[in-house]
Write a structure and sequence with these properties.
single chain, alpha/beta, UDP-n-acetylglucosamine1-carboxyvinyl-transferase, Chain, four-stranded mixed sheet, 14 helices, 24 strands, 31% helix, binds uridine-diphosphate-2(N-acetylglucosaminyl) butyric acid
Length: 418
């Protein structure tokens, strides 16, 4: 198993290019299966989750040709079955359920199971597909769905707000359903707008993605098209915060700051200087930053995926910060590792209180999920001395060339096999 070793205390300086959004690429690759002909993609991120998705898609029969960040997908689907072996390694494979059901009229997919960031039910996915007329059975850890789909009114509001992948699943399935589907309380994330744009290019009739109601008029067939994946807003935010926490100055290129309005507003409030440029942003932080209060919420609120990264930044501010996590109330496992580096964090109902300290100190720490891993990297970059991070395979799932990109910004970071 690999580990990452960081010698902390060096400000990040220079430029970094942001890759395509993992959370856009995953449902969009699934959507390509709905078509009757080939699709071509640009800006596909080279991350493990995308590799896993491509493995599942090829196991169904589809032909894939990949070169650098471009990919051609021929959606020949002989099989409509995704096994536990694949789905257990990546929850996002659940977004194959809608497209496979719509295209093949029946499918069987493993239930995704547990996750380090807390319970992640799929009731909204199933409720939505049932409303479209699917007959669903759950047996021996598998979801079997079949039936001819018909448009309907579907409310996707859940106890924690909306669900990104449930919205994606229903949107994709409804494209080939008979008649009109209206989704109330959909998730509004930019990745869903990217998905809707791709589906509309393919011949779908979707209106309102990104808004409070999505209307989909079913069509008979879809054709493959060319599409460029939007930039990864969570990766971009990770480099913004890495620059700020090391008191550096860097240009984050090929990013879309519009997708980060709320977190950038909070970072400015903390004292980070951010200048927007076409296709990116320049970040600078040269003084001690200020504490913040925030609550995570579905887009356009504060993203849960940026919460662990922001927590690390707040560990080094002067004063008390309060964070409440409203999407995954258990997403604080990483705080135990930060405490080992000298952070002062105490749990509070569905949240944490952080009291800023003057320094974090390098230590051996362990990663529990993708964003927790990125948070520990940031802590290592800002800490005094050496930080050794284990279980780094979690970061491979969502960050392309993490060590290379950070080294390019001047970080003293290396990856070693243990
Ligand atoms: N939820 C339900 N019922 C459902 C589905 C979800 O109650 O049927 C609840 C969940 O318990 C949670 C909330 O809705 O409180 C949203 O979670 P969900 O499981 O729907 O998230 P997701 O769509 O599976 C995407 C991202 C996650 C990101 C969340 C929230 C992808 C591939 N994944 O997951 O990304 O945290 O939205 O923004 O788009 C990551 O990239 O590290 C990551 C975990």
């Amino acid at each position: 198993m690999d580990q990452i070793i960081i010698e902390g205390g060096y400000p990040l300086r220079g430029e970094v290019n942001i890759s395509g959004a993992k959370n856009s690429a995953l449902p969009i690759l699934a959507a390509a299966l709905l078509a009757e002909s080939k699709s071509r993609f640009k800006n596909i991120p080279k991350v493990k989750d995308v590799t896993t998705m491509l493995k599942i898609i090829s196991s169904l029969g589809a032909e894939i040709i990949q070169k650098d960040d471009t990919l051609e997908l021929n959606p020949v689907v002989h099989k409509s079955f995704a096994s536990y072996e694949f789905v257990s390694t990546m929850r996002a494979s659940i977004c194959l359920l809608g497209p496979l059901l719509a295209k093949k009229r029946e499918t069987k997919i493993s239930l995704p199971g547990g996750c380090a960031i807390g319970p992640r039910p799929i009731d909204l996915h199933l409720k939505g597909l049932q409303k479209l007329g699917a007959k669903i059975k759950i047996e021996k850890g598998y979801i079997s769905a079949r039936g001819e789909l018909r448009g309907n009114n579907i409310d996707l509001k859940g106890p924690f707000g909306s669900s990104v992948l449930a919205t994606a699943n229903i949107m994709m399935a409804a494209c080939l359903a008979k008649g009109k589907t209206t989704i109330f309380h959909p998730a509004r994330e930019p990745e869903l707008i990217d998905l809707a744009n791709f589906l509309n290019k393919m011949g779908a009739d979707i209106k309102g993605a990104g808004g409070r109601k999505i209307e989909i008029e079913g069509v008979k067939r879809l054709e493959g098209k060319e599409h460029t994946i939007i930039p990864d807003r969570i990766e971009a935010a990770s480099y913004v915060i890495a620059t700020a926490i090391t008191h550096g100055e860097a240009e984050i290129k090929r990013a879309d700051p519009k997708h980060l309005s709320f977190p950038l507003k909070k970072l400015r409030q903390a004292g980070v200087q951010i200048a927007l440029k076409p296709g990116g942003l320049i970040v600078r932080a040269n003084e001690r930053l200020r504490p913040l209060h925030f609550i995570t919420a579905p887009y356009p609120g504060f993203p849960t995926d940026i919460q662990p990264l922001m927590s690390v930044l707040l560990c080094l501010t002067e004063g008390k910060s309060v964070i409440k996590e409203d999407i995954y109330p258990n997403r604080f496992v990483y705080t135990g590792e930060l405490q080992r580096m000298g952070a002062d964090i105490i749990p509070r109902e569905a949240g944490i209180i952080i009291r800023g300290v003057n320094v974090l100190k390098g230590a051996k720490v362990m990663v529990s999920d993708i964003r927790a891993g990125a948070a520990l990297i940031l802590a290592g970059l800002a800490a005094e001395g050496e930080t050794i991070i284990s279980r780094v395979y979690h970061m491979d799932r969502g960050y392309e060339d993490l060590v290379k990109k950070l080294s390019g910004l001047g970080a003293r970071i290396r990856r070693e096999r243990t």
